[in-house]
Amino acid sequence: MLPSFCRQTVYRIRAKTKTSRGSTIPDWENPDGDPLAISGCSVQPASTSLSEDGRVLGVMDGLTAYLPEGSDVKAGDHIMYDGQTYEINGEPRVWVSATGGRDHILLNLRRYSG
Description:
The structure is a single chain. By secondary structure, the protein is mainly β. The chain has one domain: Thrombin, subunit H. 0% of the residues lie in helices and 66% in strands. It has strands at 8-13, 15-20, 23-31, 36-52, 57-68, 78-81, 84-88, 93-96, 102-113. The strands form two sheets. The protein has a six-stranded antiparallel β-barrel with strand order 1-4-5-9-7-6. Strand 2 and strand 3 form a beta hairpin. The chain is globular, with a radius of gyration of 16 Å. The model has no long low-confidence stretch (mean pLDDT 90).
């Protein structure tokens, strides 16, 4: 269980899917319902980087989010936090407490701009 100071709320967005050229892909223009509020979270800065290839100046912004155990998130979902939308980078990780029970879920989040 996350500590009581974890008081932030994130919003999970899940895309419906569509078929394009024979492949099933996320359809972000048609999310699957309203964003799901997940409270009792802790969101912390993780990484940021600048990409300048001579044509485009871009920024990658990263966060680490700790969510309560059992939160409905999966790879490919998006997370809205503090007015920005982030992708879940990789699989959500379930942390196990020292006593062996599930404790919380860790998400690596990233957002590109530029």
